[in-house]
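Okay, any thoughts on this one?
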Amino acid sequence: MLPALTVAVGWLVLTVVGIAVLAPAAPDVKRRLLIFAPVLGAALLSSVLHWTALLVPVPAGLAGVVLVLAGCLVVAQRRGRLRWRWTRAEAVLISATTAIGVAAAVLSQLPAMIAGSSRAMSVSGNRSMDAIFYVSEADWLRQQRIWPRPTISELPGEGALLLAHGPASAAIDRPVRMGQPMVHATIDTVLGADAADTLIPLLGLWVLLVAVATAGAARLLGARWWVALLAGAAGGFSSPLLQQVYNQNSDSLLGVSLAIASVAVGVLAARQWRFVLPAALLLAGTAAVYTEYLVFVLPALGAAVLLARKGTRVGAFKRAAAAGAVAVVISPFAWYRGARTMLLGLRGGDQDDRSSWFAHADPWVSIGRALGTEGFYAGSSFRWLTLVALVAAVAALVAALLLRRRDGWLYGLLLFAALYVGYLTLAQRGYSQQRAVILLVPLVLVAVALGWEAIAARVRWHPRVVVAAVLVATVPVIGVNAAVASTDFSVDFAERQQYDEDFDEAVSWVEERGGKDVLVASPDFFEQLWLAYGMRTEPDTSFADVNSTYLRRDTFWDGEPRRYLLVGSGAAMHADPAAVVASNDRFVMLDTEAGDVVVAVPGQGTWAAHADESPAPTGQNGGAFLVLASPSLAGDYAVRLEPANEEGRTDWTIGSSTADLAATVEVPLSGSGEVSMLAVDAPASAALRIAEVVPAS
């Protein structure tokens, strides 16, 4: 599936749905909100499918979406509002903003383009594996309804749900972000594509929507067209936004555009009844896709009501209350699950001991990362721009507060954001602080754009001079954001961590032999995830050792021998040529009955989850490795271990013997089973690596 086709079809589906939703609205509302059409489309899909997913999978649930859209068109027909009118300036703005969004989307796909595959699933410097979450969820929702919650069977073949849907099970356990995989599953249904083929291109589509939503919000809230365009460019090329692409944060990426549109349309809804329904739909979509954004959206809208002009506050309150009530009615299940999850602390609390990108010992690094002038992993040569960007942003925010006093939402957003992020920082709640800053940046960009609009209006320079000045100031900052973001992924990692044809080929080997007699022996986390996904049609396939992160199991095997072993990266082996059934650059299929076979597989626990460049994981004190051998090989082979670093020079107890690992040491094997390792008075960082399996000396 061509990535460009995925983005184009996805954009077309969302836009058509959004236009149908807008059809019954008043001409002025349709004209002003047309730029938000794809965002409104995502909001409607995620909201309606939250109802239908209780009963049927997404493909069947789309019938409900069609009924809703048909109802919108019937109402539009009866009101005589099927015809659309828009000005040339608006058409140019939408076209130009979409073009900017496409450019930002292309930049977001840079790792995949370098790797030469839209299945480059892990590219970030922090080795994020979140892609499996969104693929698993979208795949599950195409096959099953959302409730009852899926559960993983204890052993292969014992249940309907496999390891591949462990991430879907985890997501439904903490059900705060299910709207995005519903939209994803919708686009997959239209394309007839696998979620694994469309995830990475859809991240680009979500970036495109952010650029469009940022520009649309700035324009809707009073900015001139050129300020709106620059706001869209700043939003789409934001370094923190692109970093989310490299981390595969699909839910929050789609949530950005919904949150921004919710604020802009919500502010108008507090002033005019005719915007209440679109605002309610966007709020419902935000709750369905990424509930956490409401932490910033609701205070902003609350301040818009409280700080409305005298004589209009009662009306503003009524309209805001109506929008909120309708939003809950549109998607009550999403609101209930989101509120329950957030209020009970079921999401992210166990990760708050993690450090934050925005809590660096050098505060200028934290500020630079938020502004896009400092890399998240690599150092930046643009440090001097941090001060320039900070002054420009602060000046714009101050101007927005002083010169746009009618915009009470600005006070609510900025005041609450400062208090909330400040509290999380002082409380050292790293993960929550990091997520809060990432969610906040796109909303602040809209406020910055409006601030510069106010400055330009007050100075009263010639429009061309103002445009030139803003371009001179903004374009380099956008360029720096793009340049910095491009340093935050690993080319080598992107090329290695692909769910590519090697996986497809390995899955075909398993299918040819029937999964029941196959045992997967790979210690590498990435391989475990994507082999499990690829083998979701083989319920009897066993996994010798599994990382419970995402997959929700430590092992998926009854301990009984299997004839065939599928061996992956990081497992050491010795096998007669006759035992090699098939092989490629990543995997080997062995037949233990066709020749002598012995395989040593690092276990989880104290072993690294990822194979390194060797490729082999490393293990700390207390680790163990599993030996899988043909019965005739007992005592005939040894596993060779070596220090993974200089601190490995100490005494280690391995099995029943003690060895000095100042150099490589051979540990005799006694057939299949687990061999434990324990360092005696070793440094905490001492580690071992399995080098190879050799004939016993």
Summary: The CA atoms of residues 262 and 282 lie 5 Å apart. The radius of gyration is 28 Å. The mean pLDDT is 84. The longest strand covers residues 673-680.
